[in-house]
Amino acid sequence: MTDTQKFPPFEWRFLHPRYWGLWLGLGLFKLILCLPYPALVVVGKGLGKLFAKLGFGKRRMRIARRNLELCFPQYSAEQIQTILDKNIESVGMAIIETGMAWFWSDNRILKWSKIEGLEYLKNQPEGAGILFVGVHFLTLEMGARIVGLHHQGVGVYRPNDNPLLDWIQFRGRVRSNKAMLDRKDLRGMIRALKAGETIWYAPDHDYGRKNSVFVPFFAVPEACTTAGTRMLLRSAPNTVVVPFSPIRNDDFSGYTVKISPAVDFSECENELDTATKMNKVVAAEILKSVSQYMWLHRRFKTRPQEADKSLYD
């Protein structure tokens, strides 16, 4: 892995006046990140409450409420609201935590974090690739940085349309890890797994009807792509699947990353079996902290039949 791959070079165009506002905002953000962690929690939760009052935020929170109602029909309206209130706070904290993950020193990250189950990463067969399944918790950026200080891997991300933001994002995410791959670069992921690398992988998004199968996500059929997990496991057969969840502790003590034992996918005979099992893995991880999951997206926007009514109307 070359230095250029790990640390993309600075480009002089980033000093163009069009980027001055972004540089100013970044400087102010880094000053805020100097606050003590408990103060940052207060700031982050406040940002979440502000987000929920804005037009865009209100729409997203309606989507989050609907997702919770669909996934947990056994919960009362009061229980849903309690989860939603905490989720709103986590949305704001995600902004602060992204900055913490990208800019905090290693020592500060270590001070406010701990890992449970690191042996499930360390004690895999020599040469085996690891598909490190991290569902879309709002704490995912912190989780990647924390684990990377103990076990480096290769991240998977979506490049940002703004070249300066993409440069900042790339450098921030690769600080404690080996490299980054475009999420569409399946060949790159396969090569890395065959080389015995650990790939950060989040399978829990709806990418549309094309190349998808419908399997239950909690109690609701969901479109799951067949171009991801199944292809990676078939192309790199020595790969093991290890799930994890980064949890923000409620007592202001920081973060606990919970790594689970490897999950056996060897008995999955087709795309449907693989997607069904992966969704069960995802659901089990979400249950570790329902309020910290990213419920803001329309998880069920693609329905089994094109004529089916939207679940969000």
What's the SSE blueprint?
Blueprint: H1 3-6, H2 20-32, H3 37-53, H4 55-71, H5 77-103, H6 106-111, E1 113-116, H7 119-122, E2 130-134, H8 140-148, E3 154-157, H9 163-174, E4 179-182, H10 186-194, E5 198-201, E6 212-217, E7 220-225, H11 229-235, E8 240-248, E9 255-259, H12 271-286
Parallel strand pairs: 1-9, 2-5, 2-8, 3-4
Antiparallel strand pairs: 6-7, 8-9
Helix pairs in contact: 3-4, 3-5, 4-5, 5-8
Pathway: Bacterial outer membrane biogenesis; lipopolysaccharide biosynthesis; Glycolipid biosynthesis; KDO(2)-lipid A biosynthesis; KDO(2)-lipid A from CMP-3-deoxy-D-manno-octulosonate and lipid IV(A): step 3/4
Protein name: Lipid A biosynthesis acyltransferase
GO cellular component, one term: plasma membrane
Average the pLDDT over all residues and give the rounded result: 92
Specify the biggest β-sheet. 5 strands, mixed
Number of strands: 9
- Please tell me what the overall shape is: globular
Number of helices: 12
Oligomer: single chain
The strand line-up of the biggest sheet is: 1-9-8-2-5
Proportion of strand residues:
15-25%
Radius of gyration, in Å, reads 20 Å
Order of helices and strands: HHHHHHEHEHEHEHEEEHEEH
Distance between the termini: 48 Å
Percent of residues in helices comes to 40-55%
Structural class of the helices, strands and pairings?
A: alpha/beta
* Contiguous uncertain segments of 5+ residues: none
Motif (HXXXXD motif): 136-141
Pathway: Bacterial outer membrane biogenesis; lipopolysaccharide biosynthesis; Glycolipid biosynthesis; KDO(2)-lipid A biosynthesis; KDO(2)-lipid A from CMP-3-deoxy-D-manno-octulosonate and lipid IV(A): step 3/4
Transmembrane segments: 20-43
Organism: Actinobacillus suis H91-0380
